[in-house]
């Protein structure tokens, strides 16, 4: 199996790069994001590789980092997500942004991917929610709160305060982060109005 390729960029196709490794040209399929970050033809590049072997073909998928390749694998553990959809998701969201979106149950962010509808986005967020926090760089308390709100386990004042901020035009992850911070400073007995006030103060910083 090929795990990494280092060579010179020969040329680009619509969804692939031709990488010249010692005179052998490897056609490597990449996400839009990866293709945009690769250098011009004639320059050196290194790609982490995922090798697909089928009866009728061998296909190489390339990534700028091992972490991006790991997400490519993780995404395909979700029902209905194949290599094409996984690459499209990674073309829309960088690995860190994808991890944060899943950790915060932000289905809308995942659904921005071309070809990914609300149902597939929901499956991605639901099925990978336990794996994403390890890659995410958001406050664990916010991840916990986002999960509680999504599962309808959050205290009523907290859920109502987040809902109010969303209705004011803030994104769900922003609102959850602000209210998590507000709840920490106000204590468990805080009322909805107080949480909204503190949450808005947090958002205006």
TrEMBL record:
Report which residue ranges the record marks as coiled coil. none
> Residues in domain Helix-hairpin-helix DNA-binding motif class?
73-92, 108-127
Keyword set, alphabetical order = Cytoplasm, DNA damage, DNA recombination, DNA repair, DNA-binding
- Classify the main location: cytoplasm
Any one Gene Ontology cellular component term annotated for this protein: cytoplasm
Q: Which residue stretches belong to region Domain I?
A: 1-64
Named from the GO MF annotations, one term is: four-way junction helicase activity
GO terms, biological process? DNA recombination; DNA repair
Q: Which SMART domains does the record cross-reference, listed alphabetically?
A: HhH1
Give the UniProt subcellular location, in the record's own words: Cytoplasm
Residue span of region Domain III: 156-205
Question: Which family is it part of?
Answer: Belongs to the RuvA family.
Q: Tell me the function of this protein.
A: The RuvA-RuvB-RuvC complex processes Holliday junction (HJ) DNA during genetic recombination and DNA repair, while the RuvA-RuvB complex plays an important role in the rescue of blocked DNA replication forks via replication fork reversal (RFR). RuvA specifically binds to HJ cruciform DNA, conferring on it an open structure. The RuvB hexamer acts as an ATP-dependent pump, pulling dsDNA into and through the RuvAB complex. HJ branch migration allows RuvC to scan DNA until it finds its consensus sequence, where it cleaves and resolves the cruciform DNA.
Q: Which HAMAP family match?
A: DNA_HJ_migration_RuvA (MF_00031)
Q: Can you state the subunit structure given in the record?
A: Homotetramer. Forms an RuvA(8)-RuvB(12)-Holliday junction (HJ) complex. HJ DNA is sandwiched between 2 RuvA tetramers; dsDNA enters through RuvA and exits via RuvB. An RuvB hexamer assembles on each DNA strand where it exits the tetramer. Each RuvB hexamer is contacted by two RuvA subunits (via domain III) on 2 adjacent RuvB subunits; this complex drives branch migration. In the full resolvosome a probable DNA-RuvA(4)-RuvB(12)-RuvC(2) complex forms which resolves the HJ.
About its domains, the entry says:
Has three domains with a flexible linker between the domains II and III and assumes an 'L' shape. Domain III is highly mobile and contacts RuvB.
Know the name of this protein? Holliday junction branch migration complex subunit RuvA
Give the species this sequence originates from. Bradyrhizobium hipponense
- Name of the gene this protein is made from: ruvA
């Amino acid at each position: 199996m090929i795990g990494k390729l280092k060579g010179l960029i020969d040329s680009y196709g619509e969804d692939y790069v031709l990488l010249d490794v010692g005179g052998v040209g490897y056609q490597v399929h990449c996400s839009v994001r990866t293709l945009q970050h690769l250098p011009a033809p004639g320059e050196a590049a290194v790609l982490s590789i995922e090798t697909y072997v089928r009866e009728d073909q061998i296909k190489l998928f390339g990534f700028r980092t091992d972490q991006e390749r790991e997400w490519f694998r993780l995404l395909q553990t979700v029902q209905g997500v194949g290599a094409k959809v996984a690459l499209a998701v990674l073309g829309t969201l960088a690995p860190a942004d994808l991890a944060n979106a899943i950790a915060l149950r932000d289905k809308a962010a995942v659904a921005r991917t071309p070809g990914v509808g609300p149902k597939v986005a929901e499956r991605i967020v639901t099925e990978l929610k336990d794996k994403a926090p390890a890659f995410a760089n958001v406050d664990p308390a916010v991840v916990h709160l986002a999960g509680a709100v999504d599962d309808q386990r959050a205290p009523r004042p907290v859920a109502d305060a987040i809902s109010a901020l969303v209705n004011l035009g803030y994104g769900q992850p922003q609102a959850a982060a602000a209210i998590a911070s507000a709840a920490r400073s106000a204590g468990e007995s805080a009322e909805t109005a107080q949480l909204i006030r503190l949450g808005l103060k947090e958002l205006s910083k």
